[in-house]
Amino acid sequence: MQAVYQLVINAPIIFIVIFACLAAFFVYTIVRFLEKQWKSRKEMPAERIEHALERHENNPVLAPLPHKDWEAVGTFNPAAVKDDEGSVHLLYRAIGKDGLSRVGHAKSKDGLKFDHRSSYPVYISKLSRKTNSDPTDRPKTYNPVIYTSGGGWGGCEDPRAVVIDGRLYMSYTAFEGWDSVCIGITSISMEDLKHSRWNWMEPMFASAPGEVNKNWVLFPEKINGKFAVLHSISPEIQVDFIDEINSKNTKYIKSVPPSGGRPDHWDNWVRGAGPPPVKTSLGWLLLYHAMDKKDPNKYKLGCMILDLKDPTKVLYRSNGPVLEPNMPYENDWKPGVVYASGALIIGKDLVVYYGGGDKYVCVAQTPLKQLLDWMVEHGKVGPGAEQEVEQEAEPKEE
Prior knowledge:
CATH class of the largest domain: Mainly Beta
Number of helices: 4
Structural class: alpha+beta
Shape: globular
CATH superfamily of the largest domain: Glycosyl hydrolase domain, family 43
Mean pLDDT: 84
Radius of gyration: 27 Å
Helix content: 10-25%
Number of domains: 2
Number of strands: 20
Strand content: 25-35%
């Protein structure tokens, strides 16, 4: 201290210069820190205002039945439609002890409690896994660790359904290993569905052999007189149109597998469409699945609004997920999965039917108007999205 004192007394100018340099360095460091903080704040996405679907208190509404070989492993990812009497029909994916996926049927008067359930599969994929003489090519017995498409190794997966002109059209994934993943479309009359007469049309395969395609959905009404197939949602919305759906139609749709997402958002890794679009006063409401690279291994559910006349245009998009896999039954068999494949308007509510953990059928819902209001306020992304949700109009039931 004595030496410092002598330095101050004998060389005040040197001391003042050193002090000034230290002070300037300190001020410069603080300013740079504040600049970085301000810049990062400006680059952050808008504050996420959440809107969550409310889960049904009695979830799961369907579970595997160990005494039925064909649905002993999993019952999940259901398609959903309503008939003209208001009953809700689920066509759900069922995995048996043999690892094959088939379609089961359940029926409910209120869309929440399913009293009727088929005692046998109501649809079985027409394709079967080809055998191979090379024993090293693939296992010949079911192994859910190796065949991870929902725990199965083949069959009819993840159905979606719409009703057009008195017929139910069901799209599904015909999975036979990752070397053969086709999109099949079949149909049945609503009268046959109501009376459990399973007279399905021979399937039309909409995608070409040797390609991997999943998560294709039909719009619930024709657009310009044609069936509309939504087959990709990222990096852009892709919709193709079909004149007729029948087994004689061999024209394949060329699609691009989903890739990318929105940087710095919850859906920076988009996986694909969920249920078929639902028509609303704002446009087509499309639920979709996505993941966040900062929160990996979790399938989450979001929503967007597509233009009614041109469904390749996105008008609104949720700034956060509306459903995340947080419940035990969403993490039982395959952790971190909520997979929605059916959605209906029942009364004033949007009711979503989804698979939990690739094992159970579950239900979640929200008042439709609240969801649309939230989308308008926090989800505008493109031109043509200026309209407000109608205040007086009742939601259109499907």
